[in-house]
Amino acid sequence: MAAIAIKDLRKDYKDVQALKCLDLNVESGQVFGFCGPNGAGKTTTLKILVGLVHASGGTVSINGIDVINNGVEARKMIGYLPESYGMPGWDTPRKFLTYMGMLSGMTREQARKAIENVAAEINLTENLDRRIKGLSKGNKQRVGIAQALIHGPDILLFDEPTTGLDPIGRNEVLDVMKDLAAKGKTVLFSTHILSDVEKICDTVGIIHNGLLIEQGSPEELKNKHGAKDLDEVFMKVAKHG
Amino acid sequence: MDDVNLPRVIVHRALSMLVSLRGILALMVALYMAMAGAFFLDMFMAEGSVIGELVQLFNDNPEYKFQWMFFDGALSKLVTLFVAPLFIFDAVSGDRSGERLGLLLSRPITRTQYMFVNFFSASLAFGIVFFGIMAPAFFMISPSIPELTFGSYMATAALMYLLGVFTISFILLISALSKSNLVSFIAAFGIMSIFMTPNASKYTSDAMMAVSKFTPHYYATYFTTHAVEPGMYLLCAAIIILMALPFLALAILKFRSEDL
């Protein structure tokens, strides 16, 4: 059973068809790179998976649970990091993460333990009691990742997690995703940065105009298109897609 | 994983609000109103002053007690109108403009539960501030009004509290409709100020008296100088709650259908 299964997914806005019968499967334990130009439908797809956007048609399931009709059960298994998000700047990461843990069904004590574990995992421990607004961008991103991990989800959906970070921060986030996959988590992340995809992804999906036009391992795609890297694959596919 | 424990989340959020800048501001506003009330009461009641004599005349009417009316009709009304919105005006609009909705609603909760958390935590936080001010105020005013019992005072205060809950449901709808905190703030406090006007003027203007019948505060202030009869009290409470429910339902319906 696929960790994430999307079939014939459609999303129509007033005058735009953002997704046109999107089919996508992500196997358990994979790091899946979801690529595509701006406006291709990546963020819309992720938001439908989390229940932030209502689908116009099609089916979406997480570990076999229908996301559209049983969103709460599905979200118990999902950790989500949006592309852009805000956190209460006056709060400390500990206070913010406690609240997020409680919203996930944890007691305060369970949340406290989970925060310690997650913070150790992603190198956030020493910043747990500083105000969020005083943290660097990289550390804020760590808090964002921590809130996605706090309830121990099996599936992680990260929307452009490395955008805006310096090379060190970017590599740290990539390492976190790789570690999570090594622990058996399924990671689906959207990005424009194809070198990131090449570094850590088992599978790449390229979406264009609301349709998945390519899916395979980075090597498979490079061989198929006779390209030296994923940038070249992307350019060729996007041009003809 | 367990389902979210809503009462626990609501209490946590309410307490967080109370110890935040917003909670301190709410407490200060409420305290200021209580102190201003006490100050004016003393000033008005000063022996030998013209106002004092007018108040005495007013108090001679068995149906009115100036002190009681002032505290219950003015103080609690002010606290209700201007403190309750502080806890709710940015509930949804703040999460929306602060880009927090994506994080919050990615948790295993429904949008209805998210709205309930906002509504009940604001109601709880407001209740703590409101009764925290109103209960001690009884001990300040009761020596000068021997016939005033704690029960009738708190019953009327509870009615006022319900009006605060109505205010919260109304402003939650504004917050759900608004994309900006500023718009929500201006709309919430502006509308609450309009609610205030007919009450402030109803003893002096027939026109305002007519308008005041359409404001929710009419139902509560009507009883402030009269004995609280259980049947009418319950009717008032029911009317206020029934007025609050459509706003809460509309806020939830609007928010549930939205793409975020």
Largest sheet of chain A, described in full? 6 strands, mixed
Q: What is the rounded Rg of chain B?
A: 20 Å
- Describe the sheet with the most strands of chain B: none
Helix content of chain A: 25-40%
Note the total helix count of chain B.
Answer: 12
Helix/strand/pairing category of chain B: mainly alpha
The total of beta strands of chain A comes to: 10
> Kindly, what is the distance between the CA atoms of the first and last residues of chain A, rounded to a whole number of angstroms?
29 Å
Order of helices and strands of chain B: HHHHHHHHHHHH
Share of helix of chain B, binned: over 70%
> Which two chains share the most extensive interface?
A-B, 38 and 28 residues
Classify the beta-strand content of chain A into a percent band: 15-25%
- Compute the average pLDDT of chain B: 76
Radius of gyration of chain A: 18 Å
Order of helices and strands of chain A: EEEHEEHEHHHEHEHEEHH
**Could you report the average pLDDT of chain A, rounded to the nearest whole number?**
90
The number of E-state strands of chain B comes to: 0
Q: Enumerate the spans of chain B where pLDDT stays under 50 for 5 or more consecutive residues.
A: 201-205, 207-226
Total helices of chain A: the number is: 9
Low-pLDDT runs of 5+ residues of chain A are none
What percentage of amino acids of chain B are in beta strands? under 5%
